[in-house]
Amino acid sequence: MRIIVCAKHVVDSTEIRWDDEHDEVVLRNLPTKISDYDRNALEAAVVLKESEPSVDLDVVMIGGEAALKTLKEAVAMGADRGHLVEGGWDDPFDPLRSARVLAKAIDQLEEPDLVMCGLVSEDGYNGVTGAALAQLLDVPYLAPVVGLKVDEGSLEAVLDVGSALRTVKVAMPCVVAVDSAMNVPRLPTVLQVMKVKGDRVAKMSLDSLSLSADAAELAHAGELVGSESGAVERRRVLIEEAPDEAAARLVEYLRQEGVL
Fold first, then answer.
1. Burial of 85 by CB count in 10 Å (0-12 exposed, 13-18 middle, 19+ buried)?
2. Contact indicator for 77, 188 with CB cutoff of 8 Å
3. Which residues contact 194 (CB under 8 A, 6 or more apart)?
4. Which pLDDT tens digits describe the chain residue by residue (260 residues)?
5. Separation between Cα atoms, residue 132 and residue 207, nearest integer Å
6. Is cis: bond before 144, omega within 30 of 0?
7. Neighbour tally for 170: CB within 10 Å
8. Which among 63, 7, 4 is positioned nearest to 40, based on CA atoms?
9. CATH of 2-218, one of 3.40.50.620, 3.40.640.10, 3.40.50.1370, 3.90.1150.200
10. Contact residues for 246 (Cβ-Cβ < 8 A; gap 6+)
11. What is the rounded CA–CA span in Å between residue 62 and residue 125?
């Protein structure tokens, strides 16, 4: 069975800060990594590979030279090969553009039985890429997936629909978007990443996919037009009274604030 995981190279969201002076999100010079949700998808794929040695697992990623180390980390998690599409952009706000490039890249590889990705990306949080990719590949799409089982050309998936878990079965090939609740991904060591040999990671140019950055099909479908801080100023109210009186004052204050 052939599995392709689409993973995204993102900045570490825990390191993002708001610049009050310039009213902007600071993304420069931040550490980068595999998007956490895509890491869940990759972990699920590696588990399938470990349960069935005949599984062939590739990872596809879009990005510049900086994404190469992130791709090697994905391979170190247990993939057979990694493919970096040198798109020349880092755009978390246009998932359709990414889906079109990923679809072209997948067409260049041996046809997969299963394409996997995270339910959302850690940076843009759009949740669109997987569904768009399935439409472009003309295959079924399943999300949000929290369980998987492969059986003779079909896929049985458990979907978390909020108040219930729904089990569905579809014929492969198909695209699945994995929810973070599915697993706890393994973390390869620095040594494991360094040991990934160069012949296990290949590069694809847009030209090799018969695309160009200014091609009509890669025109922006969406773009960031503004951002603002979501920080909440703390009230810093201090109540210094006996416990019973302090509790009553606190309740009254919360009522005045509209909390109760």
1. buried
2. yes
3. none
4. 999 999 999 888 777 777 777 777 777 777 889 999 999 999 999 999 999 888 999 999 998 888 999 999 999 999 999 999 987 666 667 888 899 999 999 999 999 999 999 999 888 888 899 999 999 999 999 999 999 999 888 999 999 988 899 999 999 999 999 999 999 999 999 999 999 998 999 999 999 998 887 878 887 777 777 777 776 777 788 888 899 989 999 999 888 888 78
5. 22
6. yes
7. 15
8. 7
9. 3.40.50.620
10. 239, 240
11. 17
Amino acid identity, position 250: L
- Total residue count of the chain as it appears in this document: 260
Output the pTM of the full model: 0.84
